[in-house]
Specification:
Blueprint lengths: L4 E5 L3 H12 L3 E6 L2 H7 L5 E4 L5 H7 L6 E4 L5 H13 L4 E5 L3 H10 L3 E3 L1 H14 L3 E8 L2 E7 L9 H4 L1 H5 L2 E7 L2 E4 L12 E7 H9 L3
Parallel strand pairs: 1-2, 1-4, 2-3, 4-5, 5-6
Antiparallel strand pairs: 7-8, 8-11, 9-10, 9-11
Helix pairs in contact: 4-5
């Protein structure tokens, strides 16, 4: 069974990061951009790198992008090029296309074309920054499903000394505690009698607005 082959079209900051991270994990990556400098920056890291215009279907074919199992389209602010590139890929049988969008309308169009996942790097970073300003205890946040997130959160002061049962987070906030990190120890699926103490970090799952409410509550 061959390794999964990935393609990345558009090697700006986001696309380059995707290509490098994939390559560092050991999978095969074909990286494409119409700017020679961008291609040169990743050429030594990925399997193959080509200077090709994203709308040059013949060039894409020669680069082998249509053999990829998954292609990430990370074209900058040129919405038309992004959409037309997605059309080319899907028409050539790429089953898993992931694309960057610059706004919700762009994302809606990509979804209707058959893009499996749409990402909004700038919007998502803005949201993360705003939430980190609102809730200083947030260490990391991972979108889980529409409206839900998995969040690593420093235990708020008002929970110090309370057991999970006493804190009643599930009933009060609809939040599930997946794990508790205490120093170098990680307690997975903690029991109701587990007491939260100063310095603990919890991994929780819940609706985004409930998580923010929990993290911003004072004594």
């Amino acid at each position: 069974m061959r390794n999964k082959l990935f393609g990345v079209i558009g090697l700006g900051r986001f696309g380059s990061s995707v290509a490098k991270t994939l390559a560092e994990s050991g999978v095969e990556v074909i990286a494409i951009d119409n700017r020679e400098e961008q291609v040169r920056r990743v050429s030594e890291l990925v399997t193959q790198a080509y200077v090709v215009d994203a709308l040059d279907e013949r060039g894409l074919e020669e680069a082998g992008i249509f053999n990829a199992d998954c292609v990430v389209v990370s074209i900058g602010s040129n919405v038309e090029a992004s959409i037309l590139t997605v059309v080319i890929l899907i028409s050539r049988g790429i089953k898993e296309v992931i694309a960057k969008a610059i706004n919700p309308l762009h994302g809606q169009v990509l979804k209707r074309l058959g893009v499996k996942r749409v990402v909004y790097p700038e919007m998502e970073m803005g949201v993360k920054l705003a939430r980190s300003l609102l809730v200083s205890g947030i260490v990391e946040e991972i979108p889980f499903a529409e409206g839900y997130s998995i969040v690593e959160l420093k235990v708020p002061r008002w929970l110090y000394g309370k057991t999970l049962k006493e804190s009643d987070l599930r009933n009060k906030f609809g939040i599930t505690v997946l794990a508790v990190k205490r120093g170098s120890e990680v307690i997975v699926n903690p029991k109701a009698h587990e007491k939260l103490i100063e310095g603990d970090t919890v991994l929780i799952l819940g609706r985004e607005e409930k998580v923010l409410k929990l993290g911003s509550m004072e004594d």
